[in-house]
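Is this the right way to post structure tokens for a design question? Let me know if I should format differently. Anyway, here goes:
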């Protein structure tokens, strides 16, 4: 585009300079030719009349007449040799009007000069003199007319020359005008219209139409400008959308937001700031944030705060500030330094929330926790006392049953002997239930320290301590992980699961497998048996306290699996019951990977 316009303007300037220079150079020449010819006309007329007057008087000096003849000859030669521009070179051809008139003038002058020279200073017979005088008198007017015709032709030629120059100049001027018109149309089509389209697009964009774009099809500077403008508008639209989102977040945030400069002076706050502090924006904008201080902290506290902001770029913590009403309240405050492209701090953003309700709730929960701790201690004391009081009668009942069986001896029939045996088993179940309740109540109040416990030796020790019936096998598949917990808790978890699998099996031969795997986030330990399995509807209820699927003399206390889930969840894990294929159950423990 720039090369095209530069070439066009260079052509226009060159044509303008050339046409003006030619016109100024040649047009005055045509006028000078006409003026010179007219001047020669007057001189020749005067010389012809002087020669005619002086030649017929013998008293006139011959030299004087010859001098005028020479002057006339010079004037005629000057008229003949008058320069003609190369554009009008055809004017001097013999058959041209100027050539013919000059030839006739030359012929008339030669005859006239001969007659004048004959008369001048000669003493001839009267007849010949009279003949010469008559010729001079007769042809002076003819000579003057011939010179006038020659000069007139010369002037006409000069005028034609001037007209030719006028035509050339006007043609060049018209050409320049047409070229300017073409340039105008080209500029209107290639420059003005695209620029107007860009201006219209910018107005639409400013009015909120962020999808406005300008169409472009040329590969010149205007096309590149349109592409750059579209890219700029797209980036600006993206920034405006982000700004709108940030403004919406700023305005709708439930936390108070304060933006300050580096002085620091508050330059903007959001509605939540007014709601929490009671200060309207016009009350604090331009003020130092110290207007919010409660007066509870020494100057060293704030110096330490700002030193940390300068070093780390951030500070957060609990602080007490003052509302406009004068009320001092707690808030959780976070201050961050905002840095520009050069890495220099340009602003500070403070975000805080009123934690008065949280502090009240925290105090209430603390009181409840203390009260609950006292209640738990009382309940634990009651549980120990109740278990002691309950176990004493149970032991007495067991002893009485034993004494009855011993005293009756062989006189006791089989039915009553079975009843005594059932009584002793019920006493043992009651004793197990009391011990389970005590263990469940004590859970969470141990004071021992956790440690990394390897499962392989732990499971081997548990397997060795169990009364495993003949035909039952417990297979421990390594590798097995180490769990961080209290050893007594891990032993209780796996003991309860293994005992549960042994007690509820329905066949004389059984197999229990223990395997482990990891997905880098969790350890999965599966205790798989091939027993009767547990219905889907009961897979969650078995983990509830006092819930058992067994009946009769084999009924358990219903605490074992509930205790397993509570212990596993204490360490951030989970236990679930799955189906084993083709029969049996899988108790899967999900335990977090340490570290």
């Amino acid at each position: 585009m720039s090369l095209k316009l530069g070439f066009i303007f260079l052509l226009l300037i060159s044509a303008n300079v050339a046409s003006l220079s030619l016109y100024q150079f040649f047009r005055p020449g045509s006028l000078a030719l006409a003026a010179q010819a007219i001047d020669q006309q007057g001189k020749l007329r005067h010389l012809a009349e002087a020669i005619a007057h002086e030649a017929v008087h013998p008293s006139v000096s011959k030299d004087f007449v010859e001098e005028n003849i020479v002057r006339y000859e010079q004037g005629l030669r000057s008229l003949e040799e008058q320069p003609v521009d190369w554009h009008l070179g055809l004017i001097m051809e013999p058959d041209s009007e100027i050539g013919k008139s000059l030839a006739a003038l030359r012929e008339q002058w030669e005859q006239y000069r001969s007659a004048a020279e004959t008369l001048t200073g000669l003493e001839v017979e009267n007849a010949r003199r009279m003949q010469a005088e008559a010729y001079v008198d007769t042809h002076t007017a003819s000579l003057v007319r011939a010179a006038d015709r020659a000069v007139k032709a010369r002037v006409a030629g000069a005028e034609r020359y001037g007209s030719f120059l006028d035509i050339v100049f006007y043609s060049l001027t018209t050409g320049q005008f047409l070229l300017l018109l073409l340039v105008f149309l080209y500029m209107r089509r290639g420059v003005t219209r695209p620029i107007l389209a860009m201006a219209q697009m910018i107005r639409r964009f400013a009015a909120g139409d962020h999808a406005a774009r300008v169409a472009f099809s040329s590969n010149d500077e205007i096309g590149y400008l349109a592409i750059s403008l579209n890219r700029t508008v797209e980036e600006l639209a993206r920034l405006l959308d982000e700004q709108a989102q940030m403004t919406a977040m700023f305005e709708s945030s439930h936390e108070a937001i304060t933006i300050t400069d580096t002085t620091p002076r508050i330059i903007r706050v959001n509605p939540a700031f007014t709601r929490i502090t009671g200060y309207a924006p016009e009350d604090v904008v331009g003020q130092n944030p110290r207007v919010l201080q409660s007066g509870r902290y020494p100057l060293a506290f704030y110096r330490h705060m700002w030193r940390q902001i300068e070093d780390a770029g951030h500070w957060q913590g609990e602080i007490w500030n003052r509302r406009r009403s004068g009320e001092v309240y707690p808030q959780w405050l976070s201050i961050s330094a905002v840095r520009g492209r050069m890495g220099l701090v340009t602003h500070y953003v403070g975000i805080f929330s009123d934690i008065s309700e949280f502090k009240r709730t925290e105090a209430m929960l603390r009181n409840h926790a203390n009260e609950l701790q006292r209640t738990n201690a009382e309940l634990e004391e009651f549980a120990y006392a109740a278990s002691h009081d309950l176990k004493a009668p149970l032991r007495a009942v067991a002893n009485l049953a034993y004494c009855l069986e011993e005293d009756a001896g062989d006189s006791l029939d089989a039915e009553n002997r079975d009843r005594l045996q059932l009584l002793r088993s019920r006493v043992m179940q009651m004793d197990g239930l009391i011990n389970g309740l005590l263990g469940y109540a004590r859970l969470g109040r141990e004071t021992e320290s956790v440690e990394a416990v390897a499962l392989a030796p732990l499971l081997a020790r548990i397997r060795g301590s169990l009364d495993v019936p003949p035909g039952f096998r417990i297979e421990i598949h390594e590798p097995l992980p180490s769990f961080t917990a209290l050893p007594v808790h891990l032993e209780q978890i796996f003991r309860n699961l293994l005992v549960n699998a042994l007690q509820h099996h329905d066949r004389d031969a059984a197999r229990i497998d223990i395997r482990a795997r990891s997905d880098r986030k969790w350890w999965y330990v599966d205790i798989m048996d091939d027993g009767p399995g547990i219905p889907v509807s009961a897979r969650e209820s078995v983990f509830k306290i006092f819930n058992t699927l067994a009946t009769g003399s084999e009924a358990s206390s219903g605490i074992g699996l509930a205790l397993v889930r509570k212990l596993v969840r204490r360490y951030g894990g989970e236990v679930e019951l799955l189906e084993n294929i083709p029969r049996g159950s899988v108790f899967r423990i999900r335990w977090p990977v340490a570290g």
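Format looks fine. Someone answered above. Worth noting: The chain has a mean pLDDT of 77. Residues 126-206 form the longest helix (81 residues).
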